[in-house]
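Need tokens for this chain, all 468 residues.
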Amino acid sequence: MKTNGNTDLTPSNPNSEIPLVSREPERAAAEERRRTFPYRFPRDRRQLGGNFSVQENSRRLLRYFYFERRLAQALGAWTLSIPEFEVKLETGRHIFYHADAARLFRERLTEQEMRPKDIDAFRDAEIDRFIDELLSAADAPELLVGIHQVIGRTLQTTYRHHIDNTDPITDVPTIRAMKRILTDYEPMLEWAEGAIAAYIEGGIEESRLATWRWHLQRLLGSIGGATGAETRNPEPAPLRITTKPFQRGTVPLRDARFETFKNTGDYDTADGQARFPKDSYESLRLRFIRTQRDEVDAIEAFGTFLWDIRFVDFQAEYDLARVTWDEARHTEIGHRALLASGYDPFELRNRLTGSTCRGPMEPAFAMAEINLFGEVGVLKTINGLIDTAREKDDSLLVHIADFIRSDERTHVRKGQHILKCMTKLGSQELELKTRELFTECLVSLGAVKADMDLFVVSREDIEHLVGE
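Here are the structure tokens for all 468 residues:
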């Protein structure tokens, strides 16, 4: 329809009730400008469209956030109970991968008009039931099957489908977040496949793992899958949690390659005799590297804290997950530094004193020991160790200690917020109570002798006897 000879009111879309108002001279001028424009940039082939409204997008993202938060907590609950070194170390990494995924979903949800406190307060009883059953794995191989082959693979597929089905223009922040998450998922799940294969090749019965996998897949299907929108099947029966609710372990486990000790914190005592003169650089150097390898107990500590304070404060959970990842890296650094120094890392006994004390302890006091004593203790001595290493041209020690020092400084800072989420005790009261509890534990282990004149071991003694 024409109104003045220049305006075309013909709708561009026959199904639209909104008319098109396009003037022929302006359209022709635009076409000419476009024709003479010299640059031919790559064409953006994305199209408007998508299956999700903001409301449906948020519903799904909130569910994904909750799954990721619960998976980080769940892996933390198992850190003490995983015996195999490589699996414990990798679990420390995966705790952070899931926590970081939760963070990304949380941030995106705040951009879709949800308040952080409402996101953090979200609970889903069906997901909780699934996680509780997954945690009831009989051993580490079953845990990996549930975490990685069941819910991990499902979430990976779900995120890919969400990317394909949401609007690639209006919802590109969600797509970007999911693609970042998938960069962690791909190596994580590939590693898990290899680890489960190693368990089977080493004698774990494959049919038992297959039965557990099918059970958890059916349970996940009974709650509508990862999205909650899938067709539901009946819940499998019986569930393990109906007869025995999950409780996290309290005893640190090591695999058969390790010789361990817990009745002392001193490596020379544990070894039977000193390898180097006391307080020599060589002795301090080896102790430092062994301590890093033995930070496998710090994976256990921070992972356990994450479980024990779950839902108290999201930022505290996230910081604990990040520190757990760092401690996994420190363990790896120590292991590789022993190799680079000519040792078979498993020839050197592994210290269990810290985890043995912290495992059954209330989280605030366990956290105070590792933060106020262990990490602060490292910072007291590491500068001098690095200076001496430079004087002796010990490039290996300088290299690893420099990175560890920066990590420990960060951990001390993050630990202050975490402790505030764990306890309302003042710093002096917290320190004294922690020393009392560790004195009781160290005496029970034979790491220190009971003495009528001994009230509590000193800060310095805990730093030396437990070490981080």
